Amino acid sequence: MKLGAAPLVLSLALVGGCRQDNNRPPAPKPGAPAESPNGQAPVEWFTDRAAESGLNFVHYNGASGHFYYPEILGPGVALFDYDNDGDLDVFVPQGRALGNDAPAPPAAALPLRGRLFRNDLQINPDGTRSLHFADVTEQSGIRATGYGLGVAAGDIDNDGWIDLYLLNFGANQMWHNNGNGTFTDVTKESGTDNRPDFGVSAAFLDYDRDGWLDLYVGNNVHYSLDNRTACPNTAGAPDYCPPQIYGGRPDRLYRNVGHGKFVEVTAKALPRVKFGPALGVSTADFNGDGWIDIFVANDGEDDLLFINQKDGTFKEIGLAAGVAVTGEGKAEASMGVDAGDFDNDGDDDLIMTELTSQGFNLYQNDGHAMFKDISAQSGLSAFSLPYTGWGTGWFDFDNDGWLDTMAVNGTIVMREGAANRQFPYDQKKVLLKNLGNGRFEQVTNQAGRAFELSESGRGAAFGDVDNDGDIDVVVANDAGPLRLLQNNIGSRHHWMGMQLVGANKHDALGARVRITRAGRTFVRRVRMDGSYGSVNDSRLIVGLGTSDELPRVDIEWPDGREEHWLEPRVDGWSILNEGSLR
Amino acid sequence: MCRNALTIVAVAAALLSASCSSPQRNGETPRSAETAPKTADGRALNQVALPDLSPMAPSAQKQIRDQYGSLTKTIAAQPAVTDLSAAYGEMGRLLMAAQYADAAEASLLNAQSLDPSDFRWPYYLAHLYRTKGDVVKSRSFFERALQLRPDDVSTLIWLGNAYLDQGLPEAADTQFAKALALDPRSISARYGAGRAALARNDYRRAVTNLEEVLKMDPKAASAHYPLSLAYNALGDAQKADEHLRLRRDHQILPADPLMVELEQLVQSPQTFETLGIRALEREDWPGAVAQFRKGLELDPQSAVLKFRLATALNMTGDAKGSEALFEEVVRTSPDYFPAQFSLGVLRQQQDRHAEAVDRFSAAIAQRADYAEAHIRLAVSLRHLGRAQEALDHYQQVMKANPQNAEAQFGYATTLAQLRRDKEARAQLMAGMKAFPDQVMFTHGLARLLAASPDDGVRDGQRAMSLVQDLVKRGRTLELGETMAMALAELGQYDQAASIQRDVMKSADRAGLPAVAKRLSKNLALYERRQPCRTPWDRDEVL
User: Fold this and answer.
1) What is the ipTM score, two decimals?
2) Could you tell me the pTM of the whole model?
3) Which residue of B has its CA nearest to A380?
């Protein structure tokens, strides 16, 4: 199939489009910064636009020198379209003081509450974009004044509006999106109050294929402010304790029995499981049987892979599948996680961020949920050894058709000589380009000034914030400012943008899109989970590189239906409704 | 002294004198010279600055300051280059041991450039960069160390590991092969060779090497996982599964006297606590005691160290000393819940259940979600006849973690203790379904069905059927007792009595006279042709 004026076989409006942005000089191809026409400095691959776009948020973790454990954990961040206007809004949790002698929060962090920012993106007639966010927390009705950690999003009652689940140190909250710009606290009614637990990451998924989104909550440790323990280093300098000091809490699986009412089914659905201190959760169909599975990254203990048994239960096979520990048999830190088809062989592989000197882990799926640790041979391990990684994700930043990855980082050991700084746990981000041959290249120093910032990175949400056809990244920093890393180069290559809408009006989470091109079939899946305590854009951008060959696109919907998209649209956004294709 | 050395010394003295002139105070900012010094031939020495010492333990602060003072004096004394190098090296080692890698780096680099022939400095630098995650520099310095000592087995192994981290298994294999040629008994070299073979997909060779590791040291549990992967790749699913089950997280490291020396450098309570814990892991009980005592010399009030010492004393058999120390910790640091818990365990073992209840309750007051404390508290409450209260504690654990089999079982048997046998039966059946690998539920159900006082619960046939299934998995005294109960319930009193006598003899032989005495009660029943109606004695509570 060739590019051309192919008629659209879709319904509803397009969401943005890809036009030349006349206000921006041509971006360089990845790997080589290009001169701008007037000889000015090369264009950055990513530019932080948070401040100028109105995403003014500074996280406050209340760190007071007592090393309360939650201080080192948050926050995540969510990218989701709460008002269904076709662009991505942002929600970010906020912390608070945990003791009586915490320092005053910075002015930019006030008032201390989780914030909702509405994206008022304008696409001008000439194709240029004006990115602007408005803080709409007050009018939204969301009262998130606890110690916020992570966030999950999904349409729990199939009314077509995305709801929010907030994970706190303390009681979690379920906020129902009323569809009119406001939210209502339905925690109690929904049955998902997680007391007395303590979680960071959660994921919505329809594990029983009944058309209602269920909820997996990854719980962390048994911790209260009363049982805090000092963990000094060898020289006696105190610091944060590892999770093993407190012991892991069991996770919880909630089944949606309809209309946003949940019942806990953990014991029945996840029998005989040794849970650990969960930090990251990612859901995908790892064995290709059409049923969604769950992967849980546990901090310092075996990670868990739950394979859906199609009868309302799961079987935990992490160790046997080769994904619970490294190839050496070590259970590592495992903070952030994402599933994605990095090698374009049609199945979802796993990436996990780890501590400094451990190296991030890359597990290659054989298509049947058996994995091989290729962290070292891919180069991923060596490039990531200096970092303690948190939020991470698979994303094709340059739209060449291969999933790249980045991680936001921050140490858990106090920086030397920095005891008098407010929160000295900073590190730089890292960007790794997929070379398409099973190996990665370190390209951080070409990514732009935003990657030179040394901050305590935690949440990272990936999505096309300006709807220009490439994936941007919102980064939440622990005790630091929110960052919006606008991608300046991805849209220079061909791409396909898809928003999948399931039969039940919601985002078709778990749907798999098979793309066949040049004799190769790879998959991209609809997901909002993964990373660290964060919510990703549920829409898909498939990079197509420079080739003008149209791909074949087949969709496996979460309920098992398969459809073929007759005439895919390239270099633009399309909404694909289940049942409207062939 | 040569002119170069004099220049170096003069410059170094200037470097340090500027930093030593300001008065010392807690929390001082790092002290350093203002200009980067150079040697006579243009090579620069690094600025050596102390980090902020204020967060450190006082003993460590003093030690580091003293070392810095010693370095200053050494420089002022205009020593030979090798002596100056050693002085920088010792400063670097101490900072590295104190986990101040950035501060250590400068000193160690100076040591290395002043005396490139000293193996120690590139070796420590290699490790320093390894912990910082800089595999390129780490590898480079291991290679440099190897140039100085080509036959150093530890260096070869660490270099091999660095190559593995970089996805270079062939290069790694070369290092491990060299190490094995020098020391064929090196477990870590053999383990590395196994990992390298696995990384190269040479599964047979991986199996050979890793099996050899386990042959040399059956406790090298880390070898099981890669061995499982290798067997899996070779299609031997059974062996793969066997090794997978045996897998444990356990480091296989080369013998490394230099790093061992480093780890003991810092004079801090934490150092001795770490060394003591390692001794405990090696089951070197006297060694652990010695280390914890050293730690207490530096911090006599440390609840943690007293607790650890108490634990170690218990392992040496000094029960009195151990108990006294646990009591002291509980008295002086009542918020330190591990001591409350451990003392509770001791009291429970001594059948002093009222005191055990107090201790476990205190532990729970500090850690409300401490499952083990709840369960043990429940056990002691049951011993005191407070079974209803015990139920609450089991329920708390089950609510927090439905996967806690021990709590479920305890709950079920407590229901039986309260004569709520129908509920107990339901609970045991649910436990059998939820935890099919946990035979205690099956056995408990068999016992209840055999001997429940509730006619609506008893089912001798089913009890016997369950017992017969369990016997296939292995015989125990308790199972024999249950079998006797089931036989009696079925009216087979002679057989029941015969089994009971056998069990009593086994108990005697096993040195359990109290058990044998307890069993005699039921024997008397069977001899009178009466069934048992007490599934569990109070003494049998877990």
Assistant:
1) 0.87
2) 0.88
3) B166
